[in-house]
Amino acid sequence: MLGGENYIQMYQMGYEILAAVDQYGNELDAETKRKLMQRCIMAPRFYRGMLDSFHEARQNMIWINRIARSREGCAAQLDLFADMLQNVAKNLEDSIFTDERLGGKRILSQLKRKGIRVLSMHFLVNGEGKYELHLTMRTWKAEKIPVKSLAGILSNLTGRRLIPGKEGGAQLIGADYTTVVFREGPSYYTMSGIARIGKGCSNISGGDSFTMMDLPGGKRGGVALSDGMGCGQAACRESTLVIELLEELLEAGFPEKTAIQMINTTLVCGREEIHYSTIDLTVFDLYTGECELIKAGASSTFIRRKDQIEHLTSTSLPIGVMNSLEIDSVKRQLTDGTYVIMLTDGVLDALPVGEQDFLLETIIKGTEIRNPKELARHILQQVLNWTGKEPEDDMSVLVAALWKCRK
């Protein structure tokens, strides 16, 4: 019975040692050392053995958890990719049609007169409900015909204002077969500008990265801002990586939220340490004037209309922190001359807590500047003037304006 009690005491002692190591590290506190010396005649050897076993078991657990997270991340990526392929296939099947009212035979006849041979022609309706015309063609002779002049001919024949899409990037039709996409022109266009300053008045905001991109499917006004953890070169690498991945995925046709989820999974699965970045993305539908603001840990956004300013905030975590990411998303209908103003945390943090939103709204309301780049510079300069000291963090202001196309 005495031996059994000794075993229980040693197990209890082992538990106390492991708890102390987990809390304080390899060096035991004085009380635990005293108890160990009293109960074990080979205390140093016993302690070293327990310490080696503990670190080995913990390392194995870390690798097991990492493998499990990687599997979950890969599974999530495959699910997202499968859903995207399914939606693309369905949309493509539903969108192809033949419409004699658009003058298919007249188009072929007119292009033939212009010296163009058409190999294939397809009418489609894209995700925005707008017509697209896909033509694979070449010239009969060695001459080259500008794509823009064909857009004018096709617009007259179909009764719709068609413009060349950017797919393929062909500017001229020559002797080789070329596929060109013509789609209905948008009703709006965007102009963007940014102003930045780094921590300590550095010329470049090192930890912040941005992009202004053209997106497929008519949603061509995409602007994004990313703030990496910390500041300087390390934060710059993180935010630049996020922006580059976002550009590649969106230009490849991935939905915006799917692209962000995929980037998040990539960052979580591929790192031992946590390196997070925010994403602030605004996508403009240039046909309807609607915009979608998508945020992952991002700072506030302000929408300036002619008679009011709307303030939007986010409660989501940045990407790269957890496998499961909740993304904040909101849609707003914009009108001609509306400005969307995106900021990084450095701008808000430079202002007094509790007065940040009021002061920024006052700065935005207090100017009639229309040029987006000049407006971004004005906002940043006013914040710097108000603080009266060097920036304590990287600061960026990105402004995008929506304008109605004039006929």
How does this structure look, described?
By secondary structure, the protein is an alpha+beta fold. It folds into 3 domains: about 90 residues; about 90 residues; about 220 residues, 4-Layer Sandwich (Phosphatase 2c, domain 1), CATH 3.60.40.10. The chain has 10 helices and 17 strands. The strands form 4 sheets. The chain has a 5-stranded antiparallel sheet. The protein has a 5-stranded antiparallel sheet with strand order 8-17-16-13-14. Strands 9-10-11-12-15 form a 5-stranded antiparallel sheet, covered by helices on one side. Strand 11 and strand 12 form a beta hairpin. Helix 3 packs antiparallel against helix 7 and helix 6 crosses helix 7. The protein is elongated and about 105 Å long.
CATH first level of the largest domain: Alpha Beta
Strand order of the largest sheet: 1-2-3-7-5
Strand content: 15-25%
Percent of residues in helical segments? 40-55%
Q: Write the CATH architecture name of the largest domain.
A: 4-Layer Sandwich
The span between the termini is: 99 Å
- Global outline: elongated
Tags for this entry?
407 residues, alpha+beta, Phosphatase 2c, domain 1, 3 domains, elongated
Summed up:
With 407 residues, this protein is an alpha+beta fold. The chain has ten helices and 17 strands. The strands form four sheets. The protein has a five-stranded antiparallel β-sheet with strand order 1-2-3-7-5. The chain has a five-stranded antiparallel β-sheet with strand order 8-17-16-13-14. A five-stranded antiparallel β-sheet has the order 9-10-11-12-15, with helices on one face.
